[in-house]
Specification:
The structure holds 2 protein chains of 2 kinds. By secondary structure, chain A is α+β, with helices and mostly antiparallel strands. Helix content of chain A is 49%, strand content 16%. Chain A has a single domain, classed as Trafficking protein particle complex subunit 3 (Muramoyl-pentapeptide Carboxypeptidase, domain 2), CATH 3.30.1380. Chain A is built from 9 helices and 7 strands. In chain A, helix 4 packs across helix 7. In chain B, helix 3 crosses helix 7. Chain B is elongated, with a radius of gyration of 18 Å. The chains are: A alpha+beta, B mainly alpha.
């Protein structure tokens, strides 16, 4: 029998931890924005993002994507640790016992509340060992130089390390569509390095996301 | 939080409140005792209100226990947020806090059908506890939550991952 009293541990009913009006706070006296735990938040102006892209391009040229990708991995590693810590604290239970639905929905909310756009997982290809991620309204690729190649290297790095840590398997991430080259959103594919290897070539040849996924599926 | 009256409190840089604004304020203030009474009842009788609903969902409707647990959890959450929204006289509170969360949980755990029945039972249960006038205070936020929850448009496919 379902006992309602038993469902309410300490009378708590954990919900949307990252709800925007709850999560973002500020200590205006000190001139600081904070999250609900008192950790510092920072608002980055668009021109600064643009300046980072253009500065990197000028100083490192071809390597700027790689630099951003590595920054993304660094960021992602810390983001994953902090994200897990906050959720474990809030739910008052070890993260391993948190359900996947709550975990992933929290990730989506967290992403949105920080102003990084809307992140969606696409599990259509999970039987074949791939996980798709869509990011809509990304502020990062919106500020990136427009061109023929995907420029979501920062996000590629974050996603790669985030899901590597989440799944405990060394995953690679490739970007297959990008708003900076005129697509509707940024799409990423995560999978084991060996299986993902052909994607880079196809992306470089300018193939569209759907075509790339079809080829991947045919490889079996 | 965007409290409905915030708009009033934002206005000193424009001008003093006019008669209409003040009457909005005084209507809200005079409704507070009733709102607090409803709130207290919901708070103190949370389990008493929800337990018969859980029993009915399991015994009469024959839904499996894990599904009923999930749905009851959703119902409790809705009721808590609706209670707070009623206290503040601001149904958008429900929307802000539950949007992007509850609908996704409903979808992930596939509780739509049970939730639908839960809401019907909840309305019946509440009408036993409250007078029509009191129900009227609670109704806007409950309806908001219900439509938010059972209208899962956003395409997030978490269910398959579980």
């Amino acid at each position: 029998m379902v006992s309602v009293a038993d469902l309410l541990t300490d009378g708590r009913l954990p919900g949307n931890y990252f709800a925007q009006d709850l999560y973002v706070r500020g200590s205006t006296e000190l001139g600081l924005l904070e999250n609900r735990r008192g950790d510092r938040l920072l608002a980055i102006p668009d021109p600064l993002l643009q300046a980072i892209y253009s500065g990197l391009e000028k100083e490192t040229g071809q390597a700027s994507g790689l630099v951003l990708y590595n920054c993304g991995r660094w960021w992602g590693k810390n983001f994953y640790a902090r994200f897990c810590e906050e959720l474990a604290d809030y739910y008052k239970q070890p993260l391993a016992s948190l359900s996947m639905a709550e975990f992933l929905q929290s990730l989506q909310q967290c992403w949105k509340t920080h102003g990084w756009g809307q992140i969606h997982l696409d599990i259509t290809y999970r039987d074949r060992g791939f996980l798709g991620v869509e990011i809509w309204h990304s502020p990062f690729t919106a500020a990136a130089p427009q061109g023929q190649k995907p420029s979501g290297d920062l996000e590629r790095g974050i996603l790669e390390i985030f899901f590597t840590q989440l799944t405990g398997r060394e995953l690679r991430c490739a970007q297959t569509s990008c708003t900076a080259k005129g697509d509707d959103c940024n799409r990423f594919i995560l999978g084991l390095e060996k299986r993902l290897a052909p994607v880079e070539g196809m992306v470089a040849n300018g193939q569209a996301h759907q075509a790339i996924m079809q080829t991947l599926m045919q490889q079996g | 939080m965007t409290f409905k009256l915030d708009a009033l409190f934002d206005s000193p840089d424009k001008q003093y409140l006019d008669a209409n604004d003040l009457s909005t304020l005084s209507q809200y203030v005079s409704s507070i005792p009733e709102r607090m009474a409803v709130y207290r009842t919901l708070r103190d009788q949370e389990i008493a209100i929800m337990q018969p609903i859980a029993d009915a969902l399991q015994q009469q409707a024959g839904h499996p226990e894990p599904l009923v647990e999930r749905s009851v959890r959703n119902g409790l959450m809705v009721l808590r947020y609706a209670a707070m929204a009623m206290l503040l006289d601001d149904e958008s509170f429900v929307e802000e806090r539950l949007q992007g969360w509850l609908p996704e949980m409903v979808k992930a755990y596939e509780t739509q059908a049970v939730d639908q029945q839960l809401f019907q039972l909840l309305h019946k249960q509440l009408s036993k506890v409250f007078s029509p006038a009191q129900l009227g205070l609670l109704k806007p936020s409950l309806e908001k939550a219900q439509s938010l929850m059972l209208n899962t448009r956003e395409t997030v496919t978490l269910a398959g991952l579980l």
